[in-house]
Amino acid sequence: MRSIRLFLTLTIIAIITLVNFLSSVRGYRQSMDEAETLFNEQLLENALLISATLPVGAPAGEKAALPPLSVNPRLDNTPGFQSLLVIQVVDDQGNLTFSFNTEAQAAITVLEPGYRDVNFDGYRWHTLTYRDTANERWILTAQRYDIRYTLAEQVVLQSVLPIVLSIPVAGFIVWLLIGAGLKPVIRLAEELQNKEATDLSPVSLEATPKELAPLQKSTNELLSRLKASFEREKRFAADAAHELRTPISVLKVQIHNLLEEWQNPPPSAQQLKIGIDRMGHLVEQILDLNRTSPDLYMAQFEQLDLFELCQEVVSDSYEQFMDKNQTLELLGEKGLIRGDRFAISTMLKNLLSNASKYTPEDGSIVVRVRSQDKEVILTVSDNGPGIPAAERERALERFYRSGQDRNPPNQPGCGLGLAIVKHIVDLHRASLTLGTPESGTGLCVKVRFRKPGQGS
After folding, report:
1. Tens digit of pLDDT for each residue in 181-204?
2. What is the maximum span of the chain, computed from C-alpha positions, in angstroms?
3. Does residue 329 sit in helix, strand or coil?
4. Rounded Cα distance, 382 and 438, in Å
């Protein structure tokens, strides 16, 4: 069961119901025994009343001469009780001298003192034979078993019914109490859920229950360890940027000087230059990947014009397109989004770098920004080899590179470009799709941003 509150409520109600059931069964049996005793006492009391008040020789069936029956106040007002009572008076010769509520012409039970069960008039009866010694006669009193037990059950159910009806009320109260008891857990869950990915501050709750204190302490210890781990990664990125860029820059300068000094540089020297360029590109990509990770990047969101930002990045990157005589076209309109300027610029640079890298010489690249309903859509299309539909999902993974037909020789690449783009898209809660341009050839990367005020 997924709900602790529901589980506890059902468990407690089940226990209450079971205890009430067992108590009710025991109470029912005790109450029925008590009712049996009361009914028997009333048979005896009525026999004594008849003995004391009914004169000897009273005509049979003369109800007017019958004194008020039942002196037990617990049963006097029981509906229908008088109608179930049968009385007979029999002399020592066995002659019926008085009869009430029966047409039997003979004694309904044996003339021996005590309680018995007998059948007459089509019913089962519980009888009492009482010896009236003073008047030398027998007084027989009887009650029908079916009515007797019906009345007894009515008396018992009147005490059991409130217990049964109280179970739903108890369930509702238990539900409310458990809900109140679980509020600190709910507050802890809400505080953790509302934390940003970069917020690793300790969780603080007012009046934390002692049962929840270990969980809060463990959570804060985990957050502290995560914060320390992320700080180490940030320091690594900063150290790597300094420690790796410097020697690579020196290598680039040295290989450039060597190539300038040699009139006919050997092929191995050119391969060395390509390797150094690839290593420099890989280091920059890894650093960008680390800096733009949604779990590490401290984003500073502001309102940006995506089209204006595209103009800046295209202007800065135009030289690499000129080297391959590629046509770069920027189309569209003003599109306002909320984002981090550095992250969006990095994303655009990677998209343009990928497009230029995989588009052949004299090829064309189109960047388009358009505003549509609640979205601003960025599209970068090229007429290169594209990415097969079966590989587009994997192309967003780190270090994945598509088939050899998409990877031109002598081009630095490490399979991190689209992974960095995906990180930045996730950071801005946008969506990214890879497809084919309308021309049917190449790759079309489409990023959809929400307009400011349109939710995430």
Report:
1. 878 887 887 877 777 666 777 887
2. 157
3. strand
4. 11
Domains and CATH numbers, the chain: 4-169 (3.30.450), 204-298 (1.10.287), 299-450 (3.30.565.10)
Q: Is residue 445 a contact partner of residue 351, using CB atoms and an 8 Å limit?
A: yes
pLDDT, residue 268, reads 81
Q: Is 61 exposed, middle or buried (0-12, 13-18, 19+ CB in 10 A)?
A: middle
For residue 256, give both structure tokens. 């450039």
**Residue 13's closest CA among 119, 198, 168?**
168
Per-residue HEC secondary structure of 149-182 comes to HHHHHHHHHHHHHHHHHHHHHHHHHHHHHHHHHC
Contacts of 123 (CB under 8 A, 6+ apart): 144, 145, 146
Closest CA to 24 of 163, 155, 158: 163
Residues pairing with 303 in the sheet:
338
What DSSP state is assigned to residue 68?
P
Output DSSP code: residue 86: E
Instruction: For residue 28, give the H/E element and its range.
Output: helix 4-53
Distance from C-alpha of 258 to C-alpha of 160, rounded to nearest angstrom = 104
pLDDT of residue 255: 81
112 phi/psi in degrees, rounded to 5: -135, 130
Q: Whole-structure pTM over 0.90, yes or no? A: no
In DSSP terms, 114 is beta-bridged to 129
Among residues 429, 423, 421, 401, the alpha carbon closest in space to that of 413 is found at 401
Tens digit of each residue's pLDDT (9 = 90 or more) over 35-73: 788 888 888 988 898 888 888 766 555 444 555 665 444
> What pLDDT score does 62 carry?
47
* pLDDT reported for residue 57: 65
